[in-house]
Amino acid sequence: MRPIAETVCRIRCTPWRTGLASTVRGLSQSSEPFNQDGVAHENRIARPDFSHVGHGATVAWVERFTVRVGQRLAVVEADDVDWIEADGDDAALHAGQQVYLLRETLYQLSLRLDPRKFLRIHRSAIVRIDRVAELEALPNRDYLLRLRDGTPLRASRTYVDKLQAALK
């Protein structure tokens, strides 16, 4: 008997299902060979396919955030945000001297932000690209990033290549 996890991860396909599954928009099918039972030789994961987005479709990036300030709701423009840091499962928006707590994970927020303006620099930080003043290399291949207002942020080596490309 197969373990439950293995059963869930495997996709069972017969030849007629294979053709149907490849036509479903949003799922990319790999071209793995199937055995005689119609089971893939390896575990397969259905991955989203966004190749259709670039053809005349427009993506609406977030332009403002609605955040709770005490009993009130405040609107913070995305252009006013200097950088964003993770605060547990929430995100702290730093806009000038103000910090606003947004009830959304950093990952979810990064998907809604315009990648031409905002960039992930650490697993716990996103920065507005035009607010970066300088980069300083650290001995461990990380970088110390300084914003125009003097705020120091650490950019991990995982994200440095994308950061350097965006700053050029």
Automatic annotation (TrEMBL):
The keyword Cytoplasm does not apply. This is LytTR family transcriptional regulator. SMART domains: LytTR (SM00850). It comes from Dyella monticola. Keywords: Two-component regulatory system. Residues 65-168 form the HTH LytTR-type domain. GO terms for molecular function: DNA binding; phosphorelay response regulator activity. Pfam families: LytTR (PF04397).
